[in-house]
Amino acid sequence: xxxxxxxxxxxxxxxxxxxxxxxxxxxxxxxxxxxxxxxxxxxxxxxxxxxxxxxxxxxxxxxxxxxxxxxxxxxxxxxxxxxxxxxxxxxxxxxxxxxxxxxxxxxxxxxxxxxxxxxxxxxxxxxxxxxxxxxxxxxxxxxxxxxxxxxxxxxxxxxxxxxxxxxxxxxxxxxxxxxxxxxxxxxxxxxxxxxxxxxxxxxxxxxxxxxxxxxxxxxxxxxxxxxxxxxxxxxxxxxxxxxxxxxxxxxxxxxxxxxxxxxxxxxxxxxxxxxxxxxxxxxxxxxxxxxxxxxxxxxxxxxxxxxxxxxxxxxxxxxxxxxxxxxxxxxxxxxxxxxxxxxxxxxxxxxxxxxxxxxxxxxxxxxxxxxxxxxxxxxxxxxxxxxxxxxxxxxxxxxxxxxxxxxxxxxxxxxxxxxxxxxxxxxxxxxxxxxxxxxxxxxxxxxxxxxxxxxxxxxxxxxxxxxxxxxxxxxxxxxxxxxxxxxxxxxxxxxxxxxxxxxxxxxxxxxxxxxxxxxxxxxxxxxxxxxxxxxxxxxxxxxxxxxxxxxxxxxxxxxxxxxxxxxxxxxxxxxxxxxxxx
Length: 582
Ligand code: GAP
Description:
Layout: H1 14-24, E1 28-30, E2 42-44, H2 46-66, E3 70-71, E4 77-79, H3 80-86, H4 88-91, E5 93-98, E6 105-107, H5 108-118, H6 138-148, E7 163-166, E8 169-173, E9 179-183, H7 188-193, H8 195-201, E10 208-217, E11 232-242, E12 260-264, E13 269-273, H9 274-279, H10 286-301, E14 309-313, E15 325-333, E16 336-347, H11 349-358, E17 364-381, H12 383-390, H13 394-403, E18 412-413, E19 416-417, E20 423-437, E21 440-447, H14 448-459, E22 460-465, E23 468-473, E24 484-488, H15 494-506, E25 511-513, H16 519-527, E26 533-537, H17 539-544, E27 546-551, E28 557-561, H18 565-575
Parallel strand pairs: 3-10, 12-14, 24-25, 24-26
Antiparallel strand pairs: 1-2, 4-9, 5-6, 5-7, 8-9, 10-11, 11-21, 12-13, 14-15, 15-16, 16-21, 17-20, 18-19, 22-23, 26-27, 27-28
The chain binds glycyl-adenosine-5'-phosphate (GAP).
Residues 186, 188, 218, 220, 229-230, 233, 235, 237, 339-342, 443, 445, 447, 449-450 line the site of glycyl-adenosine-5'-phosphate.
């Protein structure tokens, strides 16, 4: 047998082969195929659904169990106020342009970048190594289309004017059209909206992390790349709330200090340890760096190849409206480097926005070691004025005013200026016990679907066994949708094999029984869905109660007693075939 390590370099159409396998073997199917399908919507078939579930579980093991980020589950429909506050209604836009001839709507900046790249024009808006990160502004995109005469990549027709297109899906909550709703574009906003309750849950102490896995929705303009760009996708996000003055010191930094990562940033390209990246200010602070390391741990655990994983810092133009620093974990696939996760420092942006919109305080009281005497400018609400003016909202306005110290300019509550006659501004000397701090948020945010695709591509292999070509999916053992296959060598042994199959199922293995076709064909069928171990019941089984266990990757076999089979397989799933079959 010959193993084709590094095969991916030699398979030109790897992405087509992976997709063909995924469709044929029940990992991925285009949604609503019987009605012609819809770009950007994909189903997970039975094997894909188990694989995805296991990827999500690996994520939970690291971030929920390992990091103690507690999970919550909030609705996928959000109210208008939520997204007014978050900025998604005004800022969550992509640039579109329509072809005047064929009327195809295209992502304008992608058309421009693609044109500049393919025609070899050095674009001053792109860093050479990060060309895929180019995000030209609307004005710049229009200028480039006009000055280079860029035309429709599909039909060559002229392009119209560049527009903003908001990616949010809208809906209405309840009958009639009274209350607008939006399908969430990220799970994070549900977490921010729960901040006051979360703070109480975590007993008013920072830092704490909150995790959420669920569907997010983005009305992507022209999603053409399988499950890489979806209109409905699974997000796995953690929001870590931290005192901003403590971002530079993560309590568990030592655990990751020596982890090495591949880095691509404006100031540094190469490999460095997490500690060196922090010490040299390549990564801004320990909280970001720590989560980058945990992110790497997750990707390696689920089978993303380390040699095809890098961390790229966003260019200033590229950053989401809420972030001051963001790193993408990128996996190299035949689609190029694709963003699998973003690790962002969202600062206090979201909490401050929701504080303004809701009028509720989004701060944590952080006590000093001993009280301090300080002069403060405070806002004193005048209830006799606020009462008649704001009626049943007056208390909320007064409470809000009382939280403000050192005000500058207008005071805004629920998007409106508070009438200045409703308060006085006074300077007082106070004994202060502590500070109200708006936490900063460090957010590792993962795309589960892109991760699943990358795992499939990195696991896909073709080699030759006994002179026959085979496809083999070299998934990490624990991730395989079928963990053990059970085969009778010949029909006469079916009954005994079913017994073994039932035993393994009872013991909690994901097991499949297969008695059709030659034994070779059955092995091939399971090799290509990544089943790590195949148990064969043969004539010796009847004589001495043993079976053979075959390893998917090496095709080696060992003989083991049925009496200890479950222990053997558990050990193999945990430590690998070689480690448990010396
Ligand atoms: N809350 C932060 C946030 O949403 P993002 O970079 O927009 O950040 C995080 O998304 C991850 O979600 C990305 O790294 C990517 O893996 C995944 N993702 C984003 N848009 C996607 C889409 N249209 N289809 C599939 N996955 C997507």
